[in-house]
User: Which sequence fits this backbone?
């Protein structure tokens, strides 16, 4: 500035500050504030200026900007964070001050003078401090230090008030931006990272050139719904917050903990980690989560299923890594929960198949890609065909013929089991009626499997009766098979449904008998016609005395209740002969016949019997 030029007015200084601060953002506010301080130091002819924000949560003042910037700052910087409980009276006054203050060299400010001397090596100073005020809260302070003494006019102090008002607005705007950014990246219930933040983090960790492998631990709490149902969702939320805090406590070697929503969490260790180390970490975290939580006087605990997957930077994408971890945790939950599972390629193949089935099953039911095969039930004494069991198959365009084990579980999980069951029932009854109209199959029983979903569906009995009537089939020639575990799980519903089916004239069989343990106690109250011995007890007959003991008990039970008895899974001659010797002559299994298509089944029914390939003398 030339000697003849007039100094700028206070109003123009305030306007210049306002112009600079208007463009400040959360990312640039500290730098812009420093530039403003440099201008003000020059204008007011002082030696030092500083801007500090109050952190009332810890009763401290944090340094935001200063001019000139100190050199040779010690570590830690004694001025970076100053706690009001430890501050001198002059500094502490800025915690709640509402008007500008001026401190000049005098006895009452000796402590302050000494603090400045320690930080700046200046023996005597004067200070003007103007508070940043937002509403009724003092949010910071703008300070100017003169080495020596300086008077401040009323006009200058008024200008400082105007400037601190502008700085308070910037501070509020920055805090709002930071809060929005925090909320965009964090879960509002737990404060953990959210899905968006996790994805961005993993994208960076998996970039080419980054160290790896990157381990990801996917947590899924087991049966949290029980807490929500019993104590309410507020209690469930509290439970999740407690578990989130426990994960934080174990975060020494963890970079990111994220909540994906509901009861699902993802943990990513900070350092590259192999599967064995990641599994050890998973066990440690699981033990922490399994500790009891006190909620409303209840001591509660939930277990966690954990899936582990590893990603290679530059090779695997974030979606690849999370998909694998998700498949691993599904495997852990399928194993009964409270398990830890490390991803394998076999899981990937199963996951791809499941996704394929889930996406296309609905259209498959409608477009004719499903077919029925039939498994004969044979009198092992004569080879006579006594019944046939309808088994659904999916003729997949690329995967070939899929067995029901591949897609029945998926159908149940996506609420298609009822529709699939109705398709099987209608198709089997239509084909069965066609055979009879052509003079075959009049003395056999058609067996149809019933899913748990069908059993509890309103109007199921009416649906069965309607389909049988539509195709003109004698109800007694149709037998519906209900698995034993379904009987055990919901005995009251089963009892009502079975009674309705019996009133409609249909036969009922308990399938997979011997695996439900407690079904025996209910057997006398269920009007069933047939027990089918589960294949797990038949497979090793002739070599496993334990299986023989169980089978003999089931044979005696069936005789006591006057029930037909069918052995499933007869695959060896030894099993067949053992069954015959102990009085069970009805059976099905690969030794007798594999499931065959409808046309082949009609031809077999026309012959009426199957040629047996084991000795008649041995059978008798």
Assistant:
């Amino acid at each position: 500035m030339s000697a003849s030029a007039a100094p700028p007015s206070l109003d123009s200084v305030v306007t210049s500050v306002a112009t600079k601060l208007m463009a400040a953002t959360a990312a640039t506010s500290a730098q812009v504030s420093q530039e403003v301080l440099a201008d003000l130091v020059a204008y007011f002819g002082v030696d030092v200026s500083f801007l500090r924000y109050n952190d009332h949560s810890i009763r401290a003042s944090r340094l935001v900007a200063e001019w000139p910037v100190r050199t040779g700052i010690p570590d830690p910087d004694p001025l970076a964070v100053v706690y009001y409980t430890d501050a001198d009276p002059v500094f502490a006054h800025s915690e709640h001050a509402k008007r500008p203050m001026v401190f000049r060299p005098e006895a009452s400010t000796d402590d302050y003078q000494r603090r400045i001397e320690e930080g700046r090596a200046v023996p005597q100073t004067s200070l003007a401090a103007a508070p940043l005020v937002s509403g009724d809260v003092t949010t910071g302070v703008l300070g100017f230090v003169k080495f020596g003494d300086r008077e401040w006019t009323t006009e200058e102090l008024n200008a400082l008030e105007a400037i601190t008002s502008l700085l308070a607005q910037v501070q509020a705007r920055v805090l709002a931006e930071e809060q929005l950014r925090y909320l965009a990246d964090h879960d509002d219930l737990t404060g953990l990272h959210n899905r968006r933040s996790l994805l961005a983090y993993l994208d960076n960790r998996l970039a080419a050139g980054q160290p790896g492998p990157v381990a990801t631990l996917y947590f899924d709490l087991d049966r949290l719904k029980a807490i929500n149902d019993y104590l309410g969702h507020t209690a469930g939320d509290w439970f999740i917050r407690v578990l989130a805090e426990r994960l934080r406590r174990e975060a020494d070697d963890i970079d990111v903990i994220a909540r994906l929503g509901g009861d699902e969490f993802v943990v990513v260790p900070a350092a590259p980690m192999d599967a064995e180390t990641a599994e050890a970490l998973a066990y440690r975290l699981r033990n922490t989560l399994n500790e009891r939580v006190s909620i409303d006087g209840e001591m509660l605990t939930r277990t966690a299923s954990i899936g582990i997957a590893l990603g290679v930077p530059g090779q695997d994408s974030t979606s690849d890594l999370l998909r694998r971890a998700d498949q691993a945790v599904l495997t852990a939950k399928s194993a009964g929960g409270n398990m830890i599972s490390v991803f394998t390629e076999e899981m990937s193949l199963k996951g791809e198949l499941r996704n394929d089935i889930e996406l296309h099953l609905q259209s498959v039911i409608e477009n004719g890609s499903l077919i029925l095969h039939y498994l004969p039930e044979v009198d092992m004494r004569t080879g006579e065909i006594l019944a046939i069991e309808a088994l659904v198959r999916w003729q997949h365009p690329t995967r070939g013929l899929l067995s029901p084990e591949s897609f029945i579980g998926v159908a149940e999980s996506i609420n298609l089991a009822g529709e699939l069951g109705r398709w099987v029932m209608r198709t089997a009854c239509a084909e069965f009626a066609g055979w009879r109209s052509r003079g075959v199959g009049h003395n056999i029983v058609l067996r149809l499997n019933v899913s748990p979903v069908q059993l509890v569906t309103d109007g199921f009995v009416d649906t069965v009766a309607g389909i049988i009537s539509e195709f003109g089939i004698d109800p007694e020639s149709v037998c519906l098979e209900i698995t034993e575990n379904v009987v055990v799980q919901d005995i009251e519903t089963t009892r009502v449904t079975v009674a309705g089916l019996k009133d409609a004239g249909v036969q009922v069989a308990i399938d997979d008998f011997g695996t439900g343990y407690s079904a025996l106690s209910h057997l006398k109250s269920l009007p069933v016609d047939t027990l089918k011995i589960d294949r797990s007890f038949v497979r090793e007959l002739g070599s496993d005395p334990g299986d023989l003991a169980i089978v003999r008990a089931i044979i005696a039970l069936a005789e006591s209740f006057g029930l037909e008895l069918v052995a499933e899974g007869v695959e060896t001659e030894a099993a067949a002969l053992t069954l015959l010797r102990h009085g069970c002559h009805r059976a099905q299994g690969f030794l007798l016949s594999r499931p065959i298509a409808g046309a082949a089944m009609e031809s077999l029914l026309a012959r009426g019997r199957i040629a047996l390939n084991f000795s008649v003398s041995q059978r008798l």
Observations:
- The first helix runs from residue 10 to 22.
- The longest strand covers residues 385-396.
- The chain is about 45% helix and 20% strand.
- The mean pLDDT is 86.
